[in-house]
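On clarity, I found the account of how folds are encoded harder to follow than it need be. Since the whole study asks how a given chain folds, the encoding of that fold should be made plain. The format is easy to grasp once an entry is in front of the reader. For illustration, here is how one protein appears when written out as sequence plus structure tokens.
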Amino acid sequence: MLKVEHITKYYGDFKAVDDLSFEVKEGEIFGLLGVNGAGKTTTFRMIMGLLDYQDGSITLNGKKIDYSITDEIGFLTEERSLLTKLTVKEQALFFGALKGMSNKEILKRLDELLKRFEITEYKEKKIKELSKGNQQKVQFIMAILNHPKLLILDEPFSGLDPFNIELFKEEILRLAGEGSMIIFSSHRMDHVELFCKKLVILVNGKSVISGYIKDIKKNYRKKNIFIKGDIQKEELKKIGGVLEVVEHADELEVKIESEEIVDKVFEAIKEKKNITKFMVEEPSLNEIFVAKVGESYEK
């Protein structure tokens, strides 16, 4: 288990991370989210032992993270971090050696992953000769070459098309199924909801939301109702407790301040003709993120 307990990090007088705590268990995919400058990258670097912190502790399976256990960690950075003049094979041999792997282990694992990501023909090609999408595949392969117990993924789908996102998704779920602890960070909330059951949202280095996504959604009072039928947007906007009505191609999305407003909306439309859909949904993670981040900046 990864334990981050009451971590605080200053750069001079600037507090980059403020009393942050969370846990990631084996086989768990955990979301660490926030706007740019929220403290995510600093947190990643502290977890990997690249940065010191002023208060708190970080342990992996009960041990403080240092060079004795960094071979058990994989990290996919948001920025490209490949040596572009090396071939894919040379890059793997270099990176694998840094992680304490033998050449035999490296090449066996590399062949397995190149096949899985459908780029076996690029093994002897230089990194700079590959497309951005294929460079991202190679970067991901380097991050998981050592079968990491802890894997940190920062915007892993950057530059990928939907087909390749599926390949990445399958591998991430495979790693979790094998027991890897995975921290997943993305600005795409739909990607976060694909994987994560638990998350933390950071604003100015401080957690503003943490816990299971299902509980976060349940406790967020605002709900959405989707309606198809003969009803005008303006009629719905007049109902007390309706915050907004959004017109989509063939339905209306009614945003309400709490679940108690559902009955009021239903009463207002039940006599209307051709109502073919009336569905109450939890708000999206994206809505909650925008609302909570906005609230924090207003304080």
